[in-house]
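Annotated sample (chain length 221).
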Amino acid sequence: GLAVRSGSGAARWPEGPMAARAARIALFGGTFDPIHLGHLIAAEEAYQQLGVDTVIFVPTGQPWLKQERAITPAHHRLAMLQLATARYAEFEVSDLEVRRPGPTYTVDTLEEVHRLWGPELHCFFILGWDALRDLPRWKEPHRLLQLCTLAALPRPDGAPAWTELEAALPGLSQRVHHLSMPMVGISSSDIRRRVAEGRSIRFLVPEAVEGYIREHRLYRS
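Output written by the structure step:
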């Protein structure tokens, strides 16, 4: 299946009641290496503020912008996502990108999602201000803006230069929905560093994810 409904283990995307009507979904892409509480808070805020049917976490396979860093194997990142979201019916996890060979491009994922869900789909794509700054460098950014509305999450390092972005991608500002959320100073890179140094990550990741990292000896450098 293309998605695993968290908790049930049953593939159910895009079949079922949502496909029969105009669905509103939000895709949340990222390496999720590992998923942490900041990701879950962001997903919850997007779910509430966008009024979507579901937020679908889409872990990247090999992100083309991060080719210099070794990414934890996809089966571990998927397993941690499923543990983190299992209790929440509004969240799902998709293996769409990790099954696709080669570098991961968001525009290809959006094309595939529209093929699966049909013409009635209203799709949001959640990303942070840091990713938004890079958008002109992404593959086919103009096409990407036709396929989704961007849901932008504020980041502690400040807002992107909107005028420059609008000059590079005319019409961008009409395609961005600004989300508000508490500034959460948790990052996956900090969690990996803490684990490597033997420090606690309690209260930074869900308890089940903490257990999984310990059990599988992830991030021990």
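Annotation: Residues 4-12 have pLDDT under 50 and may be disordered.
Annotation: The chain has nine helices and nine strands.
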